[in-house]
Structures are given as C-alpha cells and as structure tokens.
Amino acid sequence: xxxxxxxxxxxxxxxxxxxxxxxxxxxxxxxxxxxxxxxxxxxxxxxxxxxxxxxxxxxxxxxxxxxxxxxxxxxxxxxxxxxxxxxxxxxxxxxxxxxxxxxxxxxxxxxxxxx
Length: 115
Prior knowledge:
Layout: E1 8-13, E2 19-24, E3 29-33, H1 34-39, H2 44-47, E4 65-71, E5 75-80, E6 87-90, H3 91-114
Antiparallel strand pairs: 1-2, 2-3, 4-5, 5-6
C-alpha cells in the first residue's frame, strides 16, 4: 500500500450508489465500485486480524453505498445497504485501491470461482 498518498479533494457517490468517484490533490481521479469497496473493506470483519484470516464475501455485485461519514481529515467510513458499516477507508487505502482495483477484482473473482 502507498504510504504517502495524496489527499482526497472530492468524494462523490454516483446516483446509482454503486460507484464512488474520488479526486486527489495530485490530480489523480479514480472510480471505485461499491462491490470492490465492500469485499475489500478494511474492517476486521472482512480482513480479520492477520493475512490468513481474510473472509471471502459473496453476493455483493449489487451492493450500494448508503452513507459516507468523514473520519477526521484522513478517511471516510462507508456504510453499505447490506448493513456493513465498520470499514474506515483512509485516503492512502483508497488511493491504493485505485491503483490496484483491476488486480483486486481479478483475485476476488478467482477466489469466488475456486469456492
């Protein structure tokens, strides 16, 4: 994960509530799907307390963002329509997901297919 990520300057949820547009102060703009944000939630519920504890979350293709709550000047807590609301997404994490979203989704879909 990037340690010195740019700062978020704009965070906008699409009308469909399934995509999040993020702009950073270095000029980078990304769009992340609610599905990716939900299945890669930084919460202990999803990530566990170690790399071997990560949970495979199924059935989130249509999940929607219900609410976004700022956390200081460094993160946002995202609530989803399936009730999940414990993930705090730092600016560095969002930037990292933006850089690796294709690989993250490919790995997730491969894991789903394997189970």
